[in-house]
Structure formats: structure tokens, C-alpha cells
Amino acid sequence: MVLRLGPVAQRWELSLARAVFLHRLGEIRDRKPENQSYRASGLTLLTATDALLRVKLLSGYC
What is the 3-state secondary structure (H, E, C) of the chain? Predict the structure, then answer.
């Protein structure tokens, strides 16, 4: 996922990439338990979507 819309978008991209990387390592860095839960479920969905798209691209169905 590469977006080039300016410095605000670049910060958003970096924070998303960092969150996905930390999620894959099994780390979640939020102070409140409910925030950790929301972030974990969102990152799980994002990671699963990414994996599904990669499988479709590799199998030639896209």
C-alpha cells in the first residue's frame, strides 16, 4: 500500500506500517485494554485481508 499525498499521508502510512509490523510480532502498544482490543481486532482483519489478496494474486484469480 503506497499513498503519496503529502506529509500527513506519509505519517499515516508510517503509523499503519508500524502497527502492522508490531501486530505480526505479537505486540500491541496501547495503554487502555479496550483500545488494545480494538487495535488487535482491526489489525487482525487488515492482516487477513492482506493475506487473502496476496493468495489471489499468486494464484492468478485477480
Answer: CCCCCCHHHHHHHHHHHHHHHHHHHCCCCCCCHHHHHHHHHHHHHHHHHHHHHHHHHHHCCC
